[in-house]
Design a protein that fits this description.
The chain has about 100 residues and is mainly alpha-helical. Helix content is about 70%, strand content about 0%. It has one domain.
Amino acid sequence: MRTCNHHPLWHNEPLRLNEEERQNPMLVIDDFFECYHLNDVRDILWKWMVEVLSSSGSISNEALERNNHIYFYEKAEMLVEAIYILKNLIRGQLQKNASETVVTG
C-alpha cells in the first residue's frame, strides 16, 4: 500500500491501515508496542533526527528546515508516549471490565 498519496481526498485518511485495523486501531497499537518498547522508539526517533540533521546529503540544509525536523521529532515522540499511555489505560479498563463480569456474571 502506498504511504504517500498526493490526492486531496486522501490527505487526512489512513493509507496503510487495512479495514480491520481501521475498525480496531488497538490492533495496530498493540502490534507496534509488541515490536518496540517505548525506549526503543525514543532511540530510533533520536537516531533518525540526528541522521537527518547531520548527514552530508541531508534534506535539512536550512536552519528553518532543521528546526522543523526537531519540532516534528518532539511531537512524534510525544504522540508515541501518549499512545502508549492510552494503550495501557484501555487495556487496564478492559481487564477491569472482564474481571467485574466474571465476579458478577
